[in-house]
Design goal:
mainly alpha, 4 helices
Length: 118
Amino acid sequence: MMCEVMPTINEDTPMSQRGSQSSGSDSDSHFEQLMVNMLDERDRLLETLRETQESLSLAQQRLQDVIYDRDSLQRQLNSAIPQDIESLTGGLAGSKGADPPVSASNFLSNTLFLITTE
């Protein structure tokens, strides 16, 4: 079995003379710097991921709150509005050229749809 023996680096050798000996260590230091940069980038990406997950969690919670409020308002409107739109219009639906009577729930659904799409 063959083994390569690295040359001994003399501590007293001036830097200018070490240049020829350190060509192999240049690639090692470049590789080491590349690894450090990759680890830093990984840490930065993990931190961004954590922040994004927290933001998503908050947005989902707000969405749940808004859905709950919407459903609560829908129930309140349904209980407060008469079930027949004709009672609201006072019989105007029977006049010439009027549309047929609409149930309060359909009217309410159409109104909420228009409000939410604006």
